Queue: 3 jobs
Job 1
Amino acid sequence: MLIQWKQKEEIGIPHLNQGHGTVFAKMVSGRDWKAMISRMPVGTSIGRHTHRTSMEINFVCQGTGMAICDGVAEPLSEGICHICPVGSTHEIQNTGR
């Protein structure tokens, strides 16, 4: 499957899953997966939430952050891919400057 990210509309989502700030995202989903490109300004976060029916893939293109998945902290930086499996709970924070 190919995803034409340049053709997807970016939307601003304030307090995504009760997180801080506004996350700007392009999202695509299938029956059991979800992929997104997001821009998270410094201090922004995606609040803790559970993926009950689909996994989510987050690839870091730039910057630094932290994902906490099922209670385990995972440092994020350019080139890292964070995957939240079905049934798991995670949150993501931009910890950069």
Job 2
Amino acid sequence: MKKHIVGFSRSLSLILAALMLISLISCAESGDTPDDTSPQATEAGSEAATDDPEYRCDLPDDLNFGTEVNYLYTIAANRDDELVSEDYGLGVVSDSVYERNAAVSEKLGVDLAFTGRNSDIDTASAISGLVSAGDKSVDIFVIGTYSVLTPILAGHYLNLNGISNLDLSKLYWNQYYNEMMTFTSDNLQFAATSPTAISMFRDGYLTIFNRDKLAEYQIPDLYETVWNGDWTLEYQYGLIKDVYTDANGDGKRDIDDFFGFYVGNVTDMDVYAVSSDIHLAVRDENGDLLYNTDAFERLVDMGEKVSALCNAPGTYLVNSFNEGFDVPIEKFTQKKALMATTMFGLVERNIEYLADISYGIAPIPKLTKEQAHYGTYIQDQVSCFGISASIGDEDRQAVLGAVMEAMSYYSYVIVRPAYYDVALSLRFMQDPQSKAILDTMFESISFDYVYATSLGGVRDSMRSVISSTKPAIASQEKKWQKLVENALKSQQRSLDKLKNK
């Protein structure tokens, strides 16, 4: 466990840069790019009007709380540098986090204290212990989306829609996640996310492809295929199904050969429901979640096409638990793959090995050409933020609402451009087409409630079914429906209790 404190009484030499930045991007003004993870976002990189109220932080200018605000967060891959930066001058992303924290501290007159736990299990356990004991030593909880539902339903989080100084309708909050996590007609929402979570970018899935190898196999430009809306599971299957070379000459098909496609059989399988525009839970007119029986035919179609892709002669289906979750990107960097499914965070960690490869990126394919848009799946460990239910004092709640609001806003104007426009775009993208694809992908971020919260264990069950040679979706459908419906009923009982508090 580690505690890190950012104070508003920093030495003048360290704070000057942040103060200059604050003067340019006052919390009451917004001239920066819109959050392209929101449904209303325009083309990524375009400028929002300075007087657009949806992108303007409306916190008063005279706030000076003179207090410490304590965060509890998880130290995990893709998330460990989102909140804490030890010093200025350690790199683009670290510096932006440092400046963001200094800006919030200066704006509100607060010290920000961060205590890290080593896993979401540890964090969830700590949340339970703190709230059950009425402990007010931690104010704001930060945990992966897949772990947040249990402490929410246990009553460990406050309803954010009742907190002063917090406006979740602003477009520097992720509106997809807001919609998914708002319960019942009473608009109960206990957790939110925003560009404060750099993991929202890093945990996004993509297809990476070797442009030189595509040319060698006389495959048409994939950029044009994507823009035309023709990038589908069937199209990808047609490209990779016969691409194979016995690279090591041992007469065996093994991991050291060249394949058309590398994909893992565990978390990589999670991408296909969202990319196929399938939502397993939908809301009724009262805002209550229901299992989406209308998705059945689309689910069967997706299962058959993903199965064909995973078991094509040109595919190496990685046994992720035994061989490693990073194998697809590792084999791609070794020039043993025409294309692979991977995450931006893994590309980021392997960027030095991609330097001598001419590569491009594409979304995860659509299910059909008729599908309206591509869907970018974000892995279920993205950080989300909520306030401890132990904090009963409304004045203290108002302080925490202001801190969450300022953190989200300054992340949007400081951290997001640093990561997205500098660390991500300039380091990853080798050509203008890839940058345009990148923008499109982050405009098409989507969530599915069943996948994001691991509801009923359906997501995990789906992995083995759709990657098998015989995807028995039809025989599993009733089982999945029962699991989800039972989980939703239990959840609704818990929400009713929270609603009546």
Job 3
Amino acid sequence: MAKNTNRKLNELLVNLFRTVMDSEAKAVITEEFKDISNNDMHIIEAIDIQEPRRMSEIAKRLSVTVGTLTTNMNNLEDKGYIVRERSTEDKRVVLVSLTEKGRKAFFHHRDFHKKMIKSIVSDLEEEEMKVLIRCLQKLEVFFDNPV
């Protein structure tokens, strides 16, 4: 691949990553959710709205240690977004679930992603969509196993 093509591709990826993160933070951290960060929103997303999740499962979904996650969880619990409870079956297990406030933040964040995807795919032909998905899957593989 030509040097200029590599440089352009790198520039596009770096700018895209920065733009997505900045845009998400501006769209998601509104007046209602100004007491948490974009990172906190991703933790809320990892907790999900299903049944309570183990701390270890949430940490794995976020690729962080349970110790790192605990600090963030303390903050989210203090602000009323989550509740933590010990499992009745195994007292060593801590289960996390979203409060009503946390669920509201979850749906707010999810709506941003829905709008983003809709905007991206609205004008794509089926073949373009397949190519985009293959390219993004290759990026995902690289970031899961960087060289």
